Amino acid sequence: MKFVDEVSIFVKAGDGGNGMMSFRREKFIEKGGPNGGDGGDGGSIYLEADENLNTLVDYRYTRRFHAQNGQKGGSTDCTGAKGEDLILPVPVGTTVIDAATQEIMGDLTKAGQRLLVAQGGWHGLGNTRFKSSTNRAPRQTTPGKPGDARDLKLELKVLADVGLLGLPNAGKSTFIRSVSAAKPKVADYPFTTLVPNLGVVSVGRYKSFVIADIPGLIEGAAEGAGLGIRFLKHLARTRLLLHLVDMVPPDGSDPADAAEIILHELDKFSPALMQRDRWLVLNKADQLLDEEREERMRQVVERLDWKGPVFVISALESDGTEALAQAIMRYLDERTLRIAEDPQYAEALAELDRQIEDEARARLQELDDQRALRRAGVKAADEVDEDDFDDDDDDEGGAEIFYVR
Questions:
Q1: Which candidate in 168, 196, 360, 395 could, as Cys together with 233 as Cys, close a disulfide (CB 3.0–4.6 Å)?
Q2: Are 371 and 223 in contact (CB under 8 A)?
Q3: CB 221 within 8 A of CB 261
Q4: In whole angstroms, what is the distance from residue 92 CA to residue 286 CA?
Q5: Backbone φ, ψ for residue 218 (5° rounding)
Q6: Four-point Cα dihedral 271, 321, 204, 54, nearest 10
Q7: What is the pLDDT of residue 48?
């Protein structure tokens, strides 16, 4: 199934039904009085997190959704039927944004969680409602209110405990295949990973965590180059980042150079994301002798001035991967315990999460705006009639026209 993590949709709640104007008319009963009923409320629209979904692809092809209108009130004080609510399932991890105001309406992070996105219109009142001691035959009703209508932007961020960072062919897909049952594509050419892949890593009975592999980053990714920048937002909700580095780059370059490229792009995308706990994982150690491994690790650590944990593994041979998985599980357990015991620590992490989300959204919106401007410029240039430049009768004082590409 195609992976889609951003869509725009239009939702329209049902309108309320109009009130009814009616009078009781039966044989031998004079002046029966008003008996017009109220209309029914319009149906509302909800988004509901569904753990069986992992993509927003269904909303790529169907973008407009309307809830049922409330029915008109009836005679004999009958109330119109209420419009049926519309429930739209979305994957767990979906953020809902009002496209007009850019306000975050809600974040669906738990299965079964439901969010009201369009309130149904209120019902109209029948003429029975306006009967009084001074107005025994009211001819007044009210119409139903229109339901809410709005454009929404849905953003999916995969929910994972651990996120993988690295250049293309750093071995991220091989690593996730090694430690979990996930089977992402692996090949000897770059960009084999085109969409995020999730894997569940089991490290014992009732102990497991979820790891996310995103497409590899390249230099210039923060300006939109390559694929990875589109998916960096998926790392916003991870608890730990693993920075995978190829110890033996195929082009013979320094592994530290590759690591610095990733750090540079990560910082340009979201400085707050740089504050997330990160571990350095040096991969493809099977291609080096033992003494070469130690020397290569020392060079990379010194060059990066790395202060955090460092692991040397071979994802292909599953060498060192079990120890790394156990260390990750211990880290996650300790982190959970500290959050429960230290409110200040928990609040600091929550604030960091908010900063990462805000910076990621702002950066991606900036890139979208830049693309829109480029497309608009190309379209405007293409619409200029070239014959306009060949007209010798034009006024010499005319405005200059520039092509924008």
A1: 360
A2: no
A3: no
A4: 38
A5: -130, 170
A6: 50
A7: 95
> Which pLDDT value is given to residue 10?
96
At CA 95, angle to CA 269 and CA 195, rounded to 5?
60
pLDDT at 90: 92
Crossing angle (nearest 10°) for helices 343-383 and 255-269: 90
At 166 the three-state DSSP class reads coil
* CB neighbours of residue 266 within 10 Å: 22
Partners of 163 in the β-ladder = 212, 241
The DSSP bridge pattern shows strands 103-108 and 86-91 to be: unpaired
d(CA 164, CA 179): 13
| Buried/exposed 243-252: b ≥16 CB within 10 Å, e otherwise | bbbbbebeee
* Under 8 Å between Cβ of 55 and 5: yes
Q: Report the helix count and the strand count for the chain, using DSSP H and E.
A: 7, 14
Q: What is the mean pLDDT, run by run of 10 residues, along the chain of 405 residues?
A: 74 95 82 88 95 82 93 91 94 90 88 94 93 88 95 85 83 84 50 62 83 69 55 78 89 84 83 90 88 88 90 90 92 92 91 85 75 66 51 43 33
Amino acid at 322: E
Q: What is the pLDDT of residue 404?
A: 35
